[in-house]
Amino acid sequence: MTLPIETDGASRRFGKTVAVDSLSLRVDEGETLGLVGPDGAGKTTVLRLLAGVLAPTAGRVSVAGFDTRRQAERIRPWVGYMPQRFSLYGDLTVAENLDFFASIFGVSRGSRVRLFDQLLELTGLREFRDRRAAHLSGGMQKKLGLACTLVHQPKILLLDEPTTGVDPVSRREFWDMLSGLRVQGLTLVVATPYMDEAERCTSVGLVYQGRLIVHDTPERIRGMVTGEVVEVRPVADTAAPGASLRRAQELVGRLEGVLELQSYGETLHVIVDSAARRMPEISQALARSGLGVEGLRQTRPGLEEAFISLVRRQIAPRDARSEGEAVLRGGCGQ
Amino acid sequence: MMHASLVIEADELTRRFGDFTAVDGISFSVRKGEIFGFLGPNGSGKTTTIRMVLGLLRPTSGRVMVLGQDAARDAVALRRRLGYMSQRFSLYPELTVSENLRFFARAYGVTGQRFKARQEAVLRMTELIGHEAQLTATLSGGWKQRLALAAALLHEPEILFLDEPTAGVDPVSRRAFWGLLYGLAASGTTIFVTTHYMDEAEHCHRLAFIYEGRITVQGAPAELRRHQLGAQVLEVDCLNPEQAVVVLRRAVAKGDLIVQEVNLHGSFVRLLVPEVAAAATSVERLLGASGIQVIRLEQVEASLEDVFVSLVRRQRER
């Protein structure tokens, strides 16, 4: 069977910059792949390669069974691509925008009424059909962008940061729509800077400095974290915000088997070699010093923890000291 | 009991624009040395509130005290005690690190020996020492953000306002940046973060959530997650989750299953339910009847996003 997306050592250079570095990626039918990574990591270039709007400078990209370099035109009916700045026509209404994109993609007039009805239903835009796109909220514009991307009923959907700058409620609604498309069997690739969105995907690809450093299910990626995570919630001191946490940090940091400490407000994440072994020790250390504890439990590592773990491993073999340290401290320079 | 001194106290703060009430009688307080998160969707009154706190806009009624002074009346005196970290894009890319700092310092009247000492201090803190002569345009995102922070701290503000400070920055830099903010807070600087990103909210000591001009809830992130959802979260690991969602939604439509929400969440099905134990039994039965094998049913912790989405929905239904 032909995979919806298959790339083989695909690279893309812009002058001296390698935006995407030998990408070998296989996406299965019905998969929802979340591409995560910081700004400038190469996510957008990956999507543009997959959409066939950009040819690889080396390697091969195949989408719906067609080579994007030689058969770009044949890919079009299969793929819907929503760039980060989707160009809606602000002066046109919601319905007129749909009509415009339908005519570009050669959707027959006869089928439009029913199709638009479905798309307006999916995106919850029915009551806004006569509103000008420019007068929609940011979240609604994204939904209209999605509807326009779907007018030619593609089987593969490529979305570039579709929820950036959108409020939490619209963001949730947008992902509900994507779930709906997944239920219909579409294959999705969604670039996002948010780890919590990656959790909603069936698979996650971490893109870092132009390279795909891992592509696996969220559960398995979480399992790649070195160590286990124990969550400690000391009783907060209302007179001194953060003080109890700092105290806990000091006490726990000295214990054996503690690999790393992470603060989240008044909650502390302790990465340890073994949660079963270290939890009682943590509990005792805090009790001995008289620091009240509201909660202590093992929790599953987040994708962000996994990402950091993987990035560290990635840079470690090359030059653990100089470059590694620089990246860990924020990576100075482009 | 001792209380930390309050550095911001908003009391029944209201602002109308003509017929429209942008901010509707909100009250909140921020303690010294706290990282306070102010959350809300676009158009919720977030920006209007900040403008009143910064003394850029007069309240229609109520007032906000900042560092013991009335923000509206004493705006000029307060200005030098407050810092604002502009989005990193407002740095001048064609200037060096040091030139950008000098530019911002001048705007706040930090000159001469004091500038020298302060420049040294902020460069040290943000670990930008050694990069003074580097062109800002050549810094990566994470380092630009540190430079923006350094610039905002030159005049030693007592309260630092940050707007979505880590948007678009890679996780490693983001983590390091929060480390810097925790350090600042520990030394007594109060940090006021406005954002609609949940991962930034998780880093705050306390949060206030504003919607339609009103504060709906306030509290520590962990507290909000535990007590403010009004529902429990059930995660179901099963074969064919796509089909399972269809089956469960059909049951909801027929009234056979009571839930607030059924959705795909990665390879799991996630439900917001009134009570997990009862829902788990029904779900298992419904899926079993449709030949979908259930591997695991588990109660999981709600996310902050669950909380805020459900608060907004409840508010809308009112």
Structural description of this entry:
- The complex is a heterodimer of chains A (334) and B (318).
- Chain A is α/β, with parallel strands linked by helices.
- Chain A is built from 12 helices and 14 strands.
- Chain A has helices at residues 43-51, 72-75, 94-104, 109-123, 138-149, 168-183, 195-198, 218-222, 243-253, 275-288, 303-319, 322-328, and strands at 5-14, 17-27, 32-36, 58-63, 66-67, 79-82, 156-160, 187-192, 203-208, 211-216, 228-234, 258-264, 267-272, 293-299.
- In chain A, strands 6-7-8-3-9-10 form a 6-stranded mixed sheet, sandwiched between helices. In chain A, strands 2-1-4-5 form a 4-stranded antiparallel sheet.
- In chain A, strand 12 (258-264) and strand 13 (267-272) form a beta hairpin.
- In chain A, helix 3 (94-104) runs parallel beside helix 5.
- The two termini of chain A are 41 Å apart.
- The model of chain A is unreliable at 318-334 (pLDDT under 50).
- Chain B is α/β, with parallel strands linked by helices.
- Helix content of chain B is 38%, strand content 28%.
- Chain B has helices at 46-53, 75-79, 97-107, 112-125, 141-153, 171-186, 198-201, 221-227, 241-254, 276-289, 304-317; strands at residues 6-17, 20-31, 35-39, 61-66, 69-70, 82-85, 159-163, 190-195, 206-211, 214-219, 232-238, 261-265, 268-273, 294-300.
- In chain B, a hairpin with a 2-residue loop joins strand 4 and strand 5.
- In chain B, helix 4 packs antiparallel against helix 5.
- The model of chain B has no long low-confidence stretch (mean pLDDT 91).
- At the A-B interface, helix 6, strand 12 and helix 11 of A face helix 5, helix 6, helix 9, strand 12 and helix 11 of B.
